[in-house]
Amino acid sequence: IRHGLGNRLHFFTAGMDTRARRWIEVESELRHALARGELQLYYQPIVCVRDGRVRTVEALLRWNSPALGWVSPAEFIPVAEESELIVAIGDWALETACRQVRHWQDTGLPAVRVAVNVSAHQLAGGRLPERVREVLERTGIDPGQLELELTESAMMSDSEHGARQVEAISRMGVSVALDDFGTGYSSLAYLSRFALTKLKIDRSFVDGLSRDPKSSIIVDATLGLARGLGLRVVAEGVETEEQRALLAAAGCDALQGYLFSPPVAPAALGALIDRFAPA
Ligand code: C2E
Ligand code: CA
Ligand code: CA
Ligand code: CA
Known about the structure:
By secondary structure, the protein is an alpha/beta fold. The chain is built from 11 helices and 9 strands.
C-alpha cells in the first residue's frame, strides 16, 4: 500500500511540476510578447436577433509564440492576470481595437462597434477612464462605437472604486457589458450598482439549454431581470440552430457563437460585410 501511495504521490508532484514549469514558461515568453508583436486581436461578430445584422464585434486576443506556438487565451490570460502583464496587454488591446474600428471606417465598411474585454487589474488601477478617453481622442472614433466587457470578479475586487470608474466611462458614452453573467456570485447587487447597458449570458448556460431544464430557467430569469432593469442581453457560445431558436424565442437581443462565425482575423471580417448593418 505504501509503495502504491508513494507512486501516486510521485506522479502527482511530477504533474504539478509540469504545470508549474509550463506556467513559468508561458509567463517568461508573455513578458516579451507585446514588444515583439506576437499578440493579435481577432474579431467575432455579434448578431442582432431582430434583423440578423452585425453591429458589434468582440475583440479577442490571439497569441502565436515563436517558442510555444499558438497559446490559447484560456491559458495565457490567467498568467497575464497573475503577473499583472494584463494591464499592458489590455491597454494594447483597447487601443488596437479602436484603431481597427477607425481603419474599417476609413476603408468604407459600415460603422461597427467593438467590444473589448477588460480585466479586474485594469479597473483596479484607477486609470481606465483616462485611458479610454485618450484612446477615443487618438483614434477619433465615436464613444458609441466602443463597449467594454467586464466580469463580475472585475467589479467585485473593489466595488465602490470600480462602480465610480464604470460610471465615468459610461458618462463618456461608452457602453459597459457584464460578461459571463451567472458564473460569479452576488450578481444581482452589481446589476443595480454599476452603470451597465448589457448582460452577456455565459456559454455554460447556452450549452445546457437543450439538455438541462435548469439552464433554460436561468436564461429566462436572466432575461426577465434584464428587461426589468432596461438592459440588453447577449447570449454567447451559440453553436446550434436549436440554441439560436430557443434564445431568440426567450427574448435575447443578440447572439454570438460559432453558428454565425468564429473569431476571425481583421482582414477576414470583410468577407462578412454583407451581414453588417448598413451605416
Ligand atoms: P470570453 O470573454 O467569454 O470570450 C468568449 C470566448 O468564447 C472566446 O474564447 C471565444 O472564442 C469563445 N467562443 C465564441 N463562440 C463560441 C462557440 O460557439 N463555442 C465555443 N465553444 N466557444 C466560443 P477565447 O477567444 O479563447 O477567449 C477566452 C477568454 O479569454 C475570453 O472569454 C476572455 O475572458 C479572455 N480574453 C480574451 N481576450 C481578452 C482580452 O483582450 N482581455 C482580457 N482581459 N481577457 C481576454
Ligand atoms: Ca468577453
Ligand atoms: Ca463571455
Ligand atoms: Ca465565457
